[in-house]
Amino acid sequence: MSSAAAVSVRPNPLWQALRKNRLSWVGVALLLLIVGVALLAPWIAPHDPLQQNIAYRLDPPSSDYWLGTDSYGRDVLSRLMYGARISLLVGFVSILIAMVVGSALGILAGYVGGFVDQLVMGLVDVLLSFPALLLGLMVAAMLGANLHNLIIAIALTEIAPFVRVARAPTISLKQRDFVEAGRALGFGPWRLMGVHILPNMISDVIVLGSMWMASAIRTEASLSFIGLGVPPPTATWGGMIREGFENILDAWWLVVFPCAAILATVLALNLLGDALRDAIDPKLRSERS
Amino acid sequence: MTTQDLQPILQLRGLRTEFRIGGAWHAAVRDVSLNVRRNETLAIVGESGSGKSVTALSVMRLLPETGTRHGGGQILLEGRDLAALPEKEMAVLRGNDMAMIFQEPMTSLNPTMTVGDQIAEAIRQHRRISWREARALALQALEEVKIPAAAERFDAYPHQFSGGMRQRVMIAMALACKPKVLLADEPTTALDVTIQAQVLGLLADLKEARGMAVVFITHNLGVVAQIADRVAVMYAGQVVETADVREIFARPMHPYTEALLRAMPRVDQDTESLQPIPGAVPAITAMPAGCAYASRCPLRQPRCESTDPELAQVGATHGVRCLVRAESAKVAA
User: Fold this and answer.
1) Rounded CA separation A229/A213 (Å)
2) pLDDT (tens digit, 9 = 90+) per residue, A62-106?
3) A191 at B interface, C-beta within 8 A
C-alpha cells in the first residue's frame, strides 16, 4: 500500500534518538540484563534465596557463593536476583498507577479549568511540599508494611509530576483547532479528552514515567532500608543493605552488591529516560507536524 | 421550487452575542437577522473583527462558556430555537443537523489519528453503527470529496496530506452525517488560489447534490462572487447590507459595501486605483451611539452620529442599514 511508503518518510523519533545517543544503548542493555535476571531468577539463581545455612554464614565471595553469603548463610547473588523482582515490580506498577491517575487528573484539571483545576493543583502542591521519602514513609507506616501498601505509598509520592506534565499540554491542546472541530462535530468532553487530547501528549507522560521509575525504585529501596518495605524474609535490595549494615566492617559484600544493583538500575533508567526525552524534545527533533 | 424550498432552514432573528471585557458586557454581534434556505449559499462578508465568525460560532453554540453570553434573539433551525436548547441536545445537533468547517486545514485534524478513523469517529458519534460500517461510510465520504485513491489514503495520517487535501478531509468529516446546514468559516483562506477554486467548486457541487443550506464566511469578495447566492455584509457586529449576489456587485447601497468593492483588486483595473478605507472599525468597548460606520463614511450627516439606523428594505431582497441611502432609495421609488 502506498501509505506504508509514506509512513516511512517520517522516521520513528524514538528509534532515531536511540541511534544518535550511544550512551542510551548502555542504559537499554543494562536494563534488559536486569529485567532478564529478574524474570528468570527462579531458573538461573544458583541457590534458594531463603535457604539458611549456618555453616556458611558471612562467607566471602567464593566459587560456590559468587557474591558471598549473609549472616544467615543465604546466598547474596540469589537474593539479589530475587530482590530485582521486587524492585522492578514496585517501580513499574507504582509508576503505572501514578501515570494513569496523575495524567487523568491533569487532563481533567486542564480541560475543565476553574474550580476543578484549582482543587487538583492545590492537592498537587500539598503532595509536592512533602519530600517523596517522607510521604512514602507516612503512608507506608499508616497502611502497614506489605507489597500492596508499598506500591500505593510510592504511587502517591509520584503522582504530582504527572498531573503537572499532563495539565500543561491539555490547556494548549484544548484550544487547538482539531479539538474545536471535534466539538463542532458533536463530540462530548470525555471523548475529546480521551481520544483527541490524551494521544497528543502521551509521549511526554511516558518519558516522565521512565525518569520517575528510577526515583520510585530508589524510594522503594529507602523504605525497605528503614524497614517499611516488603517484610523479611523476602529478599529486597533495600532490606539486604539494612541487614548487611550490621556487619559492614566484617562483610563488605553484603552492602556493596545491593548498592551496585540499585545504582545500575537507576543509572539504566536515567540513561533511557534522557534518550526518550531527547526524542520528544522539539528543539532536538527536526520535524513534528 | 416548492414552497418547502422557500422556507428558510436556518433563521437568525435579532441575534445578539456579548463578550465580557473589563467586567462589562459588550455586544460583538448585534441585531443580526439572516435567513438561509435549502440549496442556498449565503455569504457573510466583512473585515476582521466584524463579527462574522462570532455569528457562526454563536449559531453552533461553540463560544467558550466563560466570558461570552447569548444576549438575545433567536436561532431557528427548522423552527426550533437553538438558543434555548440544553447543551445535551445541542451536542446531538452538532455534526448531525448542522456542521462547521474551519479556516485552518493544517491544524483542524487530530495528528495522532488516521483520516479514515477520524471520519468514521464523526459518523459513529451520531449513528449507532459498527466500526466496520462507519469505516465503509467514511470511505464513501472521502470519495465524495474527490480525494484521489481514497481507499489507499484512508489509513494515512493528516501530516501526509497537503493543505487542500486536508480541507477536503475536513469537508468529508463535516458532511459525513449529511447535515442540513453547513457553516464554513473562511475554509479557503489558507489555501492557494488554484486549490481554493477547486475546493469552492467542490462545496458548490455538494451543496447542489444534497440541497444543503450553506453559510459561507469570507473576507474575499472574489470568493463571494464565485460561490454565493445571497450576501450579507457585516460591519462592527451588524449586518449593514444584504442582497442577492448580483445586486450587491451591481448596485451596492451601503457606503461600506461600496468602499469594500473599491478596495478589491480587479483584473481590468490598475491596482493603483485601489482605495483603502480610511480609519478603523470602532472597538467593541467603544461603539458610537449612532451609525457604527459614521466616523469613516463619506456621506456622513450630523444625524448619523446620533441615530442608529435600522436595516431598511430598499428592494424585494435588498436591505441596507444607512439613513442616507435608505432615504434616497425611497425618494427614487
Assistant:
1) 17
2) 777 777 777 777 887 888 888 888 888 998 999 999 999 999 999
3) yes
Cross-chain CB nearest to A3 (options B66, B156, B173) = B156
B115, three cell numbers: 483520516
- The string of pLDDT tens digits covering residues B279-299 is 888 888 888 888 888 888 888
Query: B161 contacts in A (CB within 8 Å)?
Result: none
CB A184 to CB B102 under 8 A?
A: yes
- Measured between CA atoms, the residue of chain B closest to residue A287 is B159
- Using the CB atoms, write b or e for B213-232: b if 16+ within 10 Å: bbbbbbbebebbebbbbbbb
Question: In chain A, whose CA is at the least distance from the CA of B110?
Answer: A178
β-pair type (B80-81, B98-101): unpaired
**Structural domains present in chain B:** 7-97+179-332 (3.40.50.300), 109-178 (no CATH)
For residues A88 and A220, the answer to whether their CB atoms sit within 8 Å is no
CA–CA dist B83, B10 (Å, integer)? 13
Say which residue the cell 440541497 belongs to: B211
Of A1, A114, A184, the CB nearest to B95: A184
Distances (CA, A) of B270 to B242, B257, B266, B275: 28, 20, 8, 11
Report the pLDDT value the prediction gives residue A8, as an integer from 0 to 100. 39
Domains, in order of start, for chain A: 16-43+75-245+252-280 (1.10.3720.10)
Q: Cβ A195–B159 below 8 Å, yes or no?
A: no
Query: Cβ B93–A1 below 8 Å, yes or no?
Result: no
B126 vs A183, A186, A195: nearest CB: A186
Low-confidence ranges of chain A (pLDDT < 70): 1-18, 280-289
**CB-CB neighbors (< 8 A) of B113 in chain A:** 195-196, 199
Q: What backbone torsions phi and psi does residue A29 show, to the nearest 5 degrees? A: -65, -45
Distance CA A96, CA A102 (A): 10
pLDDT over 90 percentage in chain B:
26
* A184 vs B60, B121, B149: nearest CB: B60
Among A9, A10, A180, A185, which would you mutate to test the B interface (most chain B Cβ atoms within 10 Å of its Cβ)? A185
Angstrom distance (rounded) from CA B105 to CA B197? 15
Q: How many angstroms separate the Cα of A228 from the Cα of each of A38, A145, A245, B11, B151?
A: 22, 5, 16, 70, 59
Report the candidate in A116, A213, A89, A202 with the shortest Cα–Cα distance to residue A158. Answer: A213
Note if the bond before B298 is cis, omega within 30 degrees: no
Instruction: Find out whether B249 and B206 touch, Cβ atoms under 8 Å.
Output: no
Give the number of other Cβ atoms within 10 Å of residue A250's Cβ: 10
Nearest chain A residue (CA) to B161:
A6
Closest partner residue to A183 (CB to CB) among B62, B109, B155 is B62
Distance of CA B130 to the CA centre of its chain: 34
Residue A41 to residues A29, A85, A87, Cα–Cα distance (Å)? 18, 8, 13
Asked if the C-beta of A6 comes within 8 angstroms of chain B's C-beta atoms, the answer is: yes
Structure ipTM over 0.95, yes or no: no
Handedness of CA B106, B107, B112, B116 (dihedral sign): negative
